[in-house]
Write the structure tokens for this entry.
Amino acid sequence: MVERRATGCTQAGLAIAAVVALSCVMEAHGVSRRDALFVQSINGPAIGPFLYLGAKHMVTGYDHLMFLVGVIFFLYRLKDVVQYVSLFTIGHSVTLLAGVLGGIHANAYIIDAIIGVSVAYKAFENMGGFDRLFGFRPNTRLAVMVFGLFHGFGLATKLQEFTVSQNGLVTNILSFNVGVEIGQVLALTAVLLGISYWRRHPGFLGDSFAANTLLMAGGFVLIGYQLTGYLTRA
């Protein structure tokens, strides 16, 4: 009993530490100064570098990864994982390309706050919140695709902050988008391996509620941070 309580305290401590750490690295999100200078210095097609930048942005984009973790948390079949991730991919590809190539703009803070909502929403759904409070569950596939649109705008707003040469722009943005997909596959492969291992343990279903509570808390941290930025800096 003492050991179980100690384990519970340790898990709670790790959960709190994770939320605090998340709030501390908020400022690091986006495109690094070095990458920004590189993007603005390019004049012409640069497929390789933009593939790398796209993959790097997704692998280090904790907001996108948090949402995808929520999406695949209870998906046991590879077919379902591919289906949901494909819907997300379609959504964010459309708005990434429309935002950069089509010149469609949106306030970055509001978009990132909605991305935070997407994280909290999916965690709440995983916890059975809609069934318990409202007696129904929204269409998950539609929600994943719609939120994918906002995640794509989130990517677009990062690139819109810089002066990007029109020479080779289409090739470079398409390369960036493909890089994002590569990074997504790499990150999700690691997440799936971890979750698959976790599912073998008998305490998975019990721990899943705590894990999604932490995920939802992370979503609210994102929302609060971005809305604060909107009110103080926009």
Notes: Residues 25 and 62 are 10 Å apart (CA to CA). DSSP finds ten helices and no strands in the chain. The chain has one domain: 2-233.
